Amino acid sequence: MLGFGSRKPQEDDRLPVLVQVVQSDQAFAMANKLWQENLRAVRLDPVTSKEFLRFGLVQQGQAVWFERDQGRQDSFEIILTWHDNGMRTADIYVVTPTGTRGSTGDANYTIKILDALLSTPATLPVESDGSLK
C-alpha cells in the first residue's frame, strides 16, 4: 500500500509511442487556431505544467490530447491514443513553425488531423470529469 514489500508485475505496462516533429507554418497556424477556439476548455496539469485539451472520439479508447508547455507559444503537441490488438498505442506530433527544429514528420498528415479537429462536430473537448462538453 505504501510501496513496501514485493510487487508482482500484472502486465506489460509499456506504451508503444512514435514521436515526430512537424515543422510547418500552415500546421502551426491551424494548431494555434484550434487552441484559440477551445481556450475556455483548456486545463492545466499541475504535475507536468502542461496546458491541455482532450478530444473524445467515437470509439472507446480513442482520444486526442492537444497540449503545450505552460507559458510556451512556439510549439504544440498532438497525442493520438488508441487500442490496437488489446495494446494501448500512441503517436505524438510536435508541431512547430518552419525553421525552429529539424522536421521528421509528415506535415500533410498533421494538417489533416488538425483540419478534422477544427471541422468535425464529433470531436469535442472533454471535461476534466470525463464527460463531453
Mean pLDDT: 80
Q: Are there runs of 5+ residues with pLDDT below 50, and where?
A: 1-9, 128-133
Structural class assignment: alpha+beta
Strand tally is 7
Total helical elements: 2
Number of domains: 1
- Gyration radius, to the nearest Å? 16 Å
Relative strand content: 25-35%
Concise account of the structure shown:
With 133 residues, the protein is of the alpha+beta class. It is 20% helix and 34% strand.
What does the model show?
- The protein is 20% helix and 34% strand.
- By secondary structure, it is of the alpha+beta class.
- The chain has one domain (17-119).
- Strand 5 and strand 6 form a beta hairpin.
- Helix 1 (25-37) runs parallel beside helix 2.
- The termini are far apart.
- Residues 1-9 and 128-133 have low confidence and may be disordered.
Indicate the topology.
Blueprint: E1 17-23, H1 25-37, E2 43-45, E3 50-56, E4 63-69, E5 76-84, E6 87-96, H2 107-119, E7 124-125
Parallel strand pairs: 1-6
Antiparallel strand pairs: 2-3, 3-4, 3-7, 4-5, 5-6
What keyword list fits this structure?
disordered C terminus, disordered N terminus, 7-stranded mixed β-sheet, 7 strands, alpha+beta, 133 residues, globular
